[in-house]
Amino acid sequence: MKVYKDDEFSEYQDKATSLALGTFDGLHRGHQKVIKKARNNARCSDLAAGIFSFVPHPRRVLNQEEGPRVICSQRQKKEILQEIGLDYYFCQEFTEEFSRMNFKDFIAGILCDELKSGQLVVGKDFTFGHRGEGTSQDLKKMGRYLDFEVKIVSPLRIKGKKISSTRIRKLISEGRVGKIPPLLGRKFALAGRVVHGSGRGHEIGFPTANLELEADYVRPKKGVYAGYVVHEEKEYRSIANFGRNPTFSEEDFRVEIHILDLKEDRDFYGSRLEFTPVEFIREEQKFDSVEGLKETIKSDILYTKKIL
């Protein structure tokens, strides 16, 4: 899969495209349904299969509020799209200037002329233009006079409830991580590089890998999780603390991972790790003594080994 950033769109020289169009911020199963429709249509029509997506989330630029945090990083997003089997990923930086662009100019100038789109695939709830006033049906009408086809995909539901990024973010923030994989169609994982921490974990006998996250992920509920770490394609059972380490009066939000089953001491500094939380074990606590903290960590480890 080849990636094109917005300043490279004019360099596209391949055949006509079938493009999934949207933000696709979580790449959950509903998003994948739209993307796979574009891929399958491309294969049947001798088109190149691609996705056109916006980074960052438009609400981060247009709203005064902070906007939604991400469910997957750009690196993870590219890996997932590669697995789906797309030919191209067209990545548009969403800026205030871009938001003011006339949507007809965007469709005609960028998607149709530069990227040779013969077909656009969108979700039924897709909106566009100023304040999102345009709908998927409006897009379909545009296609009739700009000579491109529009396919509209209905939302994916589980037990009658629509899969959405908002729903998944809520589950993450509430620590209900076990309910996420059926919605994502994969494990939820936070990735980053291991950086130097305070060294307290090593001092008390439970060394931790301190993760500097590679994206502004949705923050899981503060506390301790049982889960898995992946390092260089090897998986290890682990426990992770998300929070501010109140026993030692830390202020910054941290991700500290104690990796189990290591047969020897390993230096992970600078390495990229992915942590998948499987189950929320307990709330973050402030302990009166280091011994109390150590005993609780031992209990966390025993429980993790029991369930994983």
From TrEMBL:
Query: What pathway does this protein act in?
Result: Cofactor biosynthesis; FMN biosynthesis; FMN from riboflavin (ATP route): step 1/1; Cofactor biosynthesis; FAD biosynthesis; FAD from FMN: step 1/1
UniProt GO molecular function: ATP binding; FMN adenylyltransferase activity; riboflavin kinase activity
NCBIfam families the UniProt entry points to: PRK05627.1-3, PRK05627.1-5, ribF
List the protein's name: Riboflavin biosynthesis protein
Q: Which UniProt keywords apply?
A: ATP-binding, FAD, Flavoprotein, FMN, Kinase, Multifunctional enzyme, Nucleotide-binding, Nucleotidyltransferase, Transferase
Top-level lineage group: Bacteria
- The organism is Halarsenatibacter silvermanii
Task: Please state the Enzyme Commission number of this protein.
Answer: 2.7.1.26, 2.7.7.2
* Reactions catalysed, as given in the entry: FMN + ATP + H(+) = FAD + diphosphate; riboflavin + ATP = FMN + ADP + H(+)
Domain named Riboflavin kinase: residues = 183-308
Supply the PANTHER family for this chain.
Answer: RIBOFLAVIN KINASE, RIBOFLAVIN KINASE/FMN ADENYLYLTRANSFERASE
UniProt xrefs under SMART domains: Flavokinase
